[in-house]
Amino acid sequence: MSVSKQTVVRGIARVYVDIIRGTPLIVQAFFIYFGLTSALNIRMEALTAGIITLTLNAGAYSAEIFRGGIQSVDKGQMEAARSLGLPYNLAMRKVVLPQAVRTMIPALVNQCIITLKDSSILSVIGMAELTQAGKLIIANNLESFKMWLIVGVMYFIIIMILSKISKNIERKLQYGKG
Amino acid sequence: MAKVEIKNLKKHFGELEVLKDINLEVQEGEVICVIGPSGSGKSTMLRCINALEEASGGTIVVDGNEITGGNGDINLFRRNIGMVFQQFNLFPHMSVRQNIAFAPVALKLMSQKEADDEAERLLKRVGMLEKADSYPRQLSGGQQQRVAIARALAMNPDVMLFDEPTSALDPEMVGEVLGVMKQLAQEGMTMIVVTHEMGFAREVSDRVIFIDGGVIVEQGKPADVFSNPQNQRTIDFLNMVL
């Protein structure tokens, strides 16, 4: 949206990204779970509020990654496609985006990892994610060293798998090597 | 009727006036070389012809279609105008064959099979058939530019625009690209070539245009312009480059 020609669309995208980037995740979570629900007089599950917060958050950061990725593609690529008679959208989809995605993958996977880790912060509003689950189990068995170690290892394994997948994709997308 | 008709073309970027008042008619099969100092507006003029730059004033008509003014489908008009860029601008994520077959297939003008056959025919023409399955980054600059010419020809254009096609090349590769262009000229393609290759301009073009400061200062047969320039600015420029 930030690379759109329409200034209104671009303006909305800018404000959204600025608000999310300019405030801490925990404040956004409290705002949505406590602030928004009381202002609008609605009830919301912790899980719902948590998902909304994380989605808005990851969305804003990913938008910036997409913008950077698209802008990193040399503008000669768009011009070459347009000079052949391709409409803007087709040129964007077939020429610019495939190249942009390739440069965006490391950043997107990184964002995935950050979002996964950020989900632990949402234990403060009682969302039942990994950290919250750990807390609850420790409250029962008081084995805090063992349990936090297990929780840490679980995060670590998931993130390692993500990194490996990302490396694989990056390798596959290198065209014309060798 | 002229193939390309430029009338009172003006272009400014903000305060900067790049093209002041360009008038030019190009006949079918004519090869025009546009020369002039850097920043004189020659590339901008070329880019206005296929609307990569929007003209600030004046009209451009190619093959009876008005490019300026926003009437009609510019995407349709552009199919008829091939363009070759200084930086080649091949699509790095596609093989040589795909680069050429891509646009006709994406625009549903040919089946994949037809486009692939056409790509091979064009690659043979520019002497690049054996590299059909290579990727652009595996090619030299001269090879990339020859593929870029083939890519533009795949749309079967009536007019070809060349924007300093050899300026980004190592000297030993200039010849192979000029060779392809010369062959194209001899086959009767209408060409407008912005170039610093004075030898090519003298040998191949039907008419040389000298642009300076956003206006056409002098034009004529290459022999006349190069051997007997009339305008002082042309004389100064030629003294510098020849």
Would you mind describing this structure in some detail?
The complex is a heterodimer of chains A (178) and B (242). With 178 residues, chain A is an all-alpha fold. Helix content of chain A is 78%, strand content 0%. In chain A, helix 3 packs across helix 5. Chain A starts with 6 loop residues before the first helix and ends in a 6-residue tail after the last helix. The mean pLDDT of chain A is 88. The model of chain B has no long low-confidence stretch (mean pLDDT 95). In chain B, helix 3 (96-106) runs parallel beside helix 5 and helix 4 (112-125) crosses helix 5. Chain B has 242 residues and is of the alpha/beta class. Chain B is globular and about 55 Å long. In chain B, a hairpin with a 2-residue loop joins strand 1 (4-13) and strand 2. In chain B, 38% of the residues lie in helices and 25% in strands. The two termini of chain B are 35 Å apart. At the A-B interface, helix 4 and helix 5 of A face helix 2, strand 6, helix 3 and helix 5 of B.
Treating each run of at least 4 consecutive H or I residues as one helix, how many helices of chain A? 7
Tally of separate helices of chain B:
9
* Poorly predicted residue ranges of chain B: none
Tell the overall outline of chain A: flat
What's the overall average pLDDT of chain B, rounded?
A: 95
Q: Give the beta-strand count of chain B.
A: 10
Assess the beta-strand content of chain B as a share of residues. Answer: 15-25%
Q: Biggest interface, and residues per chain?
A: A-B, 20 and 33 residues
What's the mean pLDDT score of chain A? 88
Distance separating the two termini of chain B: 35 Å
Query: What sequence of helices (H) and strands (E) makes up the elements of chain B?
Result: EEEHEEHEHHHEHEHEEHH
Structural class of the helices, strands and pairings of chain A? mainly alpha
Low-pLDDT regions of chain A: none
Rg of chain A, Cα atoms, Å: 21 Å
How many E strands of chain A? 0
With strands numbered from the N-terminus, the spatial order across the biggest sheet of chain B is: 6-7-8-3-9-10
